[in-house]
Amino acid sequence: MRLQLIGLAGFLAFSGAALADDPPPYEGDPSWSMRALLGYSKTGGNTDNSSANALFHVAHTIGDWKLLFGTEGLYGSTKGETTAQAYTIHGQANYNFTPKFYGYVGASYADDRFSGFAYQDAVTSGVGYQFFNSDATKLSAQLGIGVRRLRPELLTEDPTGGITATMLLAPTTEAVLDAGVNFNQALNAYTHLIASVAVEAGSSNTMTTANLSVQVKMSSTLALSAGYQLIRNSQPPPGVGTSSTLTTLSLVYEVKNPKLAPD
Fold this sequence. Notes:
There is one protein chain. By secondary structure, this protein is mainly β. The protein has a single domain (2-255), classed as monomeric porin ompg (Porin, Beta Barrel). The protein has one helix at 2-16, and strands at residues 32-43, 49-62, 65-78, 81-96, 101-112, 117-133, 137-157, 163-168, 172-188, 191-201, 206-217, 222-233, 243-255. The two termini are 29 Å apart.
């Protein structure tokens, strides 16, 4: 079913744009950009699964500063029992030394109930470079260092996948290498490919988060998004897998600014 939904989104992406007129030029505030996303699915009968995901990203420029804020959430259940629950909050302030070269300070907090970590939070700083920043293509990369705090936990799960007991382990604080790449490509006037990879590498664990989505514009502010996410922890506590994936089909509300991506 998920593959069918992704295929449908891809079909709409490449066929819907061919039937539409060119979008009007951007007339909003050039210092702001925002994206909000909401998805929900439910199956009945023998499976009885439901899931919901949400995202909110905003960007704002003040002179040579660019301020970024984002939060994402996920919830899933099977037969009325919670089998997925996670949320993240992250913020970053960039200062442009040149139109392409910038320094940044950022902070993040991740709480994934099924990851084997009660939380992972970090404060990081480094430099980045904007390789492309045209209306059609945006590509940036950054590299820095920081401090991360982890709180691992042991999970006991029932056959359905729900958690029946947890045992917190001692927290750790460590230095981390912080790296990330963001890419946004307009495939045509109404279809965008959005991809990102973020890595926090420390001595006790390396967390890698990769996102890929295709957004198909339906109006000046609404779009349909088909997305895939991979999160990998290199050294989770015993009994927890290293990787988790998420496939979504969501409705997006976006205050679009071709010069300012909200990621």
